[in-house]
Amino acid sequence: MTHSDVVGFDPIAIERWLPTATDVTGPFTWTRLPGGHSNLTYLLTSADGRELVIRRPPQGELLPKAHDMWREYRIIDGLWPTAVPVAEPIAYVDDRELCEVHFYVMGKVDGAALYSGAEVRDWLPEAARKRAGESFIDTLAALHSIEPTDVGLAELGRPDGYVARQLKTWYGSWTASVPFAEHDDPRAHELHELFNANLPEQGPARVVHGDFGPHNCMFSPDGEVTAVLDWEIATLGDPLADFAYSINAWVEPGDAGVYGADPATALPGFPSRDDLIARYAEATGADLSDLAFYRAFNAWKTACILHGVYARYRAGQKSTEGVDLDALFARIGLSLDVSAERAAEI
């Protein structure tokens, strides 16, 4: 990629500044990295092969709290000395002479995120998959064992009432999306009432990632998590809600297709959900007696998220090119099926 192809940064200005913040000097090769919730993210490779990652919000008008680079940076900066693997925080910059918006620079981490079975087959041999599951859940347990005050993250978010706020947010999303989706399901409303009537008492608040799954972890070929990515929606909250989200996303062979047709963890060699639940309980000492509630709630939340996405497609707010709307619609119902099944255990 030439300098003229770089969007959102002035490569000459950045390359002139970088040696003042790091011991890495240019010239650099710029490579656009995919993913990252539409944030503009580039890999910078120096002539001697050293690698850095630079990340900024997308171009255009943004919602006030969206794409907060300082929030992401302060989280990896706080977690860097802990047992939670993150990319090395190098510099956060809010200087309009360098860039039109704030940005940060971090170290490059080797590994591969596991979005689907295709990535697993290409990257992670079957013999390493047991360790991948163990490292995955050990990493989450380590995150939930950290006292936020100890890592400078006590002000990351409101610590109490996490699930109650989530219920309000996502129920609002469901009801607002009904006219555009032209679809409602009585179970969405019934489950919302059930959850509000059976809210567990939240224990001590911890940093919750919000989207902790194999797709947001980098794995080495031997199964070790080398870094957790995309801290954009992390906050303080109920660690058991965060844990249940991850357990739901840990797909087993034979599961319904809530997470697509080729889920990463349904391949041979990975530990079962029960294995991960037992390992988490042992590592954290958490009381998991309300796990059915948290799993049901997260499946319902997934249905609300998918319902909102489907509504935006139906309303013409997102391009449907290459999108299987029928499959997306089916996943809404499957998520509610899972939620209702788990809710029967409450």
UniProtKB/TrEMBL annotation:
InterPro entries to which the protein is assigned, alphabetical: ACAD10-like (IPR052898), ACAD10_11_N (IPR041726), Aminoglycoside_PTrfase (IPR002575), Kinase-like_dom_sf (IPR011009)
Gene3D superfamilies per the UniProt record, alphabetical: 3.90.1200.10, Phosphorylase Kinase, domain 1
Aminoglycoside phosphotransferase domain location: 29-272
Protein name in UniProt: Aminoglycoside phosphotransferase (APT) family kinase protein
GO molecular function: kinase activity
Sections of the chain in a coiled coil: none
Keyword Cell cycle: no
The keyword Transferase is annotated on this UniProt entry: yes
Residues that span the membrane, as ranges: none
SUPFAM superfamilies per record: Protein kinase-like (PK-like)
UniProt entry keywords in alphabetical sequence: Kinase, Transferase
